[in-house]
Amino acid sequence: QQQVKQSPQSLIVQKGGISIINCAYENTAFDYFPWYQQFPGKGPALLIAIRPDVSEKKEGRFTISFNKSAKQFSLHIMDSQPGDSATYFCAGLIIQGAQKLVFGQGTRLTINP
Amino acid sequence: GAVVSQHPSRVICKSGTSVKIECRSLDFQATTMFWYRQFPKKSLMLMATSNEGSKATYEQGVEKDKFLINHASLTLSTLTVTSAHPEDSSFYICSARERGLLRFYEQFFGPGTRLTVL
Q1: Distance from A28 to chain B by nearest Cα, in Å?
Q2: Could you give the 3-state DSSP secondary structure of residue A14?
């Protein structure tokens, strides 16, 4: 019940295209859903996050779409750039309590120039 | 703001030795710090949660006596890998949660430490 399932495992997108990464969760107690970006040999960095009371959040080229009834959320990267090539992780968290992040499996995104 | 550092960034040691990794919150006080382990091309695996001044809480399957965690102050947590063996080789990452922050549940990650045990 704690799992967050992420797909695809890897993704190749042409420069300027839209990158879409999907996540599904099981635990309805999750109330915070962040996305992290990780470059090789570096720690993850918070990219964007959403609470389940909104269906969409946009920050620059990055948008989270959230479907509470389906228990799914996705990251859209518009106008994808080679510099966006990285591994992306979605996660779920219960704000009260232990506040442990439950990570998805990760998506390795490659943007071809 | 919200910068977390780790030291060292890379360490190579001989089998049987102990290695200490430091995690510091540079510009904030951290109520809680988390230690993760990451294998190549894999997701982050939570090892333990530590609160300042109290014993760490370890995840199931993580050996407490092998991975010693000390959260001595609001800005410093250390992970000591005792009697390291080649199977302990991995990328270790810490994260910290800021005390008193409105979004207190956000975690800020360090840059990671690459441990190689020969």
Answers
A1: 17
A2: strand
